[in-house]
Amino acid sequence: MIGRLREGSPARIGPYETLARLGAGGMGEVFLATDGPRVPESLVAVKAIRREVAGDPAFRARFRREIAVAESVASPFVARLVAGDADAEQPWLATEYVPGPTLAEAVRRHGPLPAPAVLALGAGMARALSAVHAAGALHRDLKPANVLLGTDGPKLIDFGVARTPGATTMTSTGLLVGTPGFMSPEHVAGGRHVVAASDVFCLASVLAHAAAGRDPFGDGPVAAVLYRVSRAEAELEGVPQELRDVLAECLVRDPGARPGPEALAERLAALACSGGPDVGWPDPVVESIAETRRDVAHLCAAGQPLMPLPQDSAPDGYTPTRTPTQRSTPPALTPHDLPTMGAAPPATPAATPARRALSRRTVLATVLAVAVAGGAVGALLALRGPATGDEAGGPGGQGAGPAPSTTLSPAALVARAGVNGAGTDDRSGYVPQFREQRPKGWKPWRGRLGHAPMSCAADTRAVVCLLTDGTYVALDASSGRRLWTSDGRSPADGDVGDEAYISPSGKLFMPGDSLAPTVRGGTTVIAHKGRLQVRDSRSGGVRWSAAPDGGTHFTAALLTGEGRLVMSQEGSADGVDGPAGAKLRAFGLKDGAPGWTHRLGTGELA
Question: Does the predicted TM-score (pTM) go above 0.70?
Answer without folding.
Answer: no
